[in-house]
From TrEMBL:
Gene3D superfamilies: 3.40.50.2300
Superkingdom of the source species: Bacteria
Protein name according to UniProt: Response regulatory domain-containing protein
InterPro entries referenced in this protein's UniProt entry, alphabetically: CheY-like_superfamily, Sig_transdc_resp-reg_receiver
Length: 136
């Protein structure tokens, strides 16, 4: 039995938002994927460190994070990091999905997070789905 895991970074300045995202996605988003280990990041410096060092397989960024939101951070990462890991942005309003598209995110989740939709979205991105996924 393989002990490999997928490493997902979850960024928000608010610990309760990180917890909500982790709970919604779960420890195994789909039966055909590896178990997930989470890295929680509360600052942009933490995100940049992990992304620059290539230590994570996927990033989930809070679009409402302060002082810099996940959408701006997503665009920065996609523009500056060669072979940037896939990024999922969580937004509060469905109307903000267009901004997530601008951010070059690979997928978008809309709060309140539906655990089935969140896990499915993350699974699709981890499998390398080429089509941007919007759930919510």
């Amino acid at each position: 039995m393989s002990t490999q895991t997928t490493k997902i970074l979850v960024f928000s300045h608010r610990p309760e938002v990180r917890e909500t995202i982790i709970t919604a996605v779960g420890r195994r988003p789909a039966p055909d994927l590896q178990r997930v280990d989470y890295v929680e990041a509360g600052t942009i410096a933490d995100v940049l460190y992990e992304a620059d060092n290539g230590t994570v397989d996927l990033l989930i960024l809070d679009g409402e994070a302060q002082p810099t939101g996940g959408m701006g951070l997503s665009r920065q990462l996609k523009d500056e990091i060669t072979n940037c890991p896939p990024i999922v942005v969580a937004v509060r309003r469905k109307d903000d999905r267009w901004l997530a598209t601008w951010s070059q995110a690979d997928a978008v989740l809309v709060h309140p997070l539906d655990p089935l939709a969140a896990a499915e979205t993350v699974a699709e991105v981890l499998r390398g789905s080429a089509v941007p996924v919007v759930k919510g």
